[in-house]
Design a protein that fits this description.
Length: 482
């Protein structure tokens, strides 16, 4: 595994900050991914004193590792929402993501973040996927999107049907994060890296925030942590962690003079509706055209060998693009809400001071700015004009049963059971390290992720380094070293 291809080459320096001397601010935003930074920006632009507390570094999790597709054609999501709930829910979801696209373009223009226009395609890679693609086309048309339908495409891989939506956007997600950090700082906010939030205490007039870099208090706290740290009910019942893989390929590779490998994939962003899914697009990185191929997603902690899943993506790509040479491979996760639309919630009552947004089902580049709008309007006392739709309780319940029914795999890799206490052993820097595999969040049993050398919890997606240090929440503490 490597870092995402976006991290190659020189990048602008990010301002690194510390917690403010004054211990009370209007808002503490926990997490500097897209949700956190978009929310912080809206609050700071409205004149609020805002601190973003990030446990690792800006974009360390999903936001800095995505494919960078900014589009409202999202596989067959719109038809899924229309079929599972109603066309009105699909319409609300679409409007929220259209708002997200507008916000991203506003930011790109204000902060000179480069982007390209590209057509988006949802395609069927097998005959079994054709009906899903046709349904997506019909629902997109009903919702007024200017889509066209194809029986095939001139691509190097099989396409049995496709929907095309013109004039969408693709970009480098790390350049977008850099632009957001600069905008937050310019609006008077602070972004503090290496600052993990470990505790919250809400009272009538404030929330006390405990972090690894010190304490502060705020009128409001926004958990932009992908999964809501410090809340067990929501994580357990409403969000399913889902990991998937991305690889970057040099298309020139060992191409013979006569072939034109860069033409093997027409310009565009492609997402299949089949399983295993495939997502493809070209990108410009350091002035070179590269091919991105992703897919092979699974519930976090459930793959037998994550290394094999990357090997499978590489084989699939080389089969269809014989000149492709893999240069990067990485992985990231997002959460799938059982209610099928992103979760934006205020804990306790409507007057509560702790908020959460996440669960974008891998469409958060446009979902996060929409969620940021909803939360910031709520905090600022403005009318809420954006909504992801209100799925019916029955439909959401049916989907919840389907998503949570799969029992997570409990044991793989080098897991040793000592009586009833599962432990794991790895070698870190030549030293043998033994950890308890009982997740400190709520007692799930972590499994070994061989591609990333991490311990991953199948219950709610917490991840830990080989030595047990927490990488991703909802856990806020390490695995116990033995
Ligand atoms: C492989 C992949 C490809 C994707 N491609 C696309 C795409 O092409 N288009 C699209 O629209 N979407 C895409 N997505 C989805 C998108 O990347 C995510 O929905 C979005 O980035 C989520 O942003 P976030 O800020 O909510 O979460 P994250 O980016 O996960 O950020 C959460 C942050 O919170 C921090 N944190 C956690 N716990 C604490 C704590 N206790 N204290 C302080 N900080 C904490 C973490 O370190 C992290 O930085 C993709 C997702 C994946 C996994
Ligand atoms: S993430 Fe909840 S138990 Fe591990």
């Amino acid at each position: 595994m490597t870092a995402p291809v976006w991290n190659d080459g020189a990048r602008i320096a990010r301002p690194s900050d510390s917690l403010p001397a004054a211990d009370h601010v209007n808002a503490v935003v926990v997490g500097a991914g897209l949700t956190g930074l978009c929310t912080a920006l809206r609050l700071a632009e409205a004149g609020r004193k805002v601190v973003v507390a990030e446990a690792r570094s800006v974009g360390a999790c999903a936001s800095g590792a995505s494919t960078g597709k900014v589009t409202v054609l999202q596989g067959n999501r719109l038809s899924l929402l229309a079929e599972s709930f109603s066309i009105d829910v699909a319409q609300d979801y679409l409007r929220a993501h259209q708002h997200g696209v507008e916000e991203i373009l506003r930011l790109c223009s204000a902060r000179q973040v480069p982007f390209e226009r590209a057509n988006a395609f949802t395609y069927a890679g097998t005959p079994e996927g054709v009906n899903k693609v046709r349904n997506e086309f019909e629902v997109c048309r009903e919702l007024g999107l200017p889509v066209s339908s194809h029986d095939s495409l001139d691509t190097a891989f099989p396409v049995h049907a496709a929907v095309e939506l013109p004039d969408q956007v693709q970009l480098d997600p790390v350049a977008l994060l850099d632009g957001l950090v600069a905008a937050v700082v310019a609006a008077g906010g602070r972004v503090v890296e290496g600052c993990r939030v470990t505790g919250l205490e809400e009272s009538d007039d404030r929330v006390a925030v405990e972090t690894t870099a010190g304490r502060l208090s705020a009128d409001h706290v926004i958990l932009a942590t992908a999964s809501p740290i410090l809340d067990h009910v929501l994580t357990t019942t409403e969000l399913v962690p889902h990991r998937s893989y991305l690889c970057a390929f040099d298309l020139a590779g060992s191409a013979p003079e006569s072939s034109a490998p860069e033409d093997a994939l027409p310009e565009g962003m492609f997402v299949s509706v089949d399983s295993p899914s495939r997502t493809l697009r070209k990108a410009t990185v350091n002035a070179q055209r590269v091919l991105l191929v992703g897919g092979n997603g699974h519930r976090t902690g459930e793959a037998i060998s994550t290394q094999e899943l990357i090997g499978d993506l590489e084989s699939w790509t080389v089969e269809h693009f014989p000149n492709a040479r893999m240069t990067h491979a990485w992985s990231a996760q997002d959460h799938h809400p059982t209610g099928m639309v992103p979760l934006v919630t205020t804990f306790g009552s409507d007057e509560g001071r702790v908020h959460f947004a996440g669960g974008y089902s891998k469409w958060g580049i446009t979902g996060a700015p929409a969620a940021a709008r909803i939360i910031s309007d709520r905090i600022l006392g403005r009318p809420e004009t954006v909504s992801f739709g209100t799925p019916s309780k029955l439909g959401a319940m049916k989907n919840a049963v389907k998503s949570q029914a799969k029992t997570p795999a409990m044991m793989v890799g080098n897991l040793v059971r000592e009586g009833l206490k599962p432990t794991g052993e790895t070698t870190v820097g030549g030293e043998t390290v033994e950890v308890s595999l009982v997740c400190p969040h709520a007692g799930g049993i972590c499994t070994w992720n061989d591609a990333e050398s991490s311990w991953d919890c199948p219950l709610h997606g917490s991840r830990f380094d080989a030595d047990g240090s927490v990488l991703e929440g909802p856990a806020t503490t390490d695995l116990k070293r033995l």
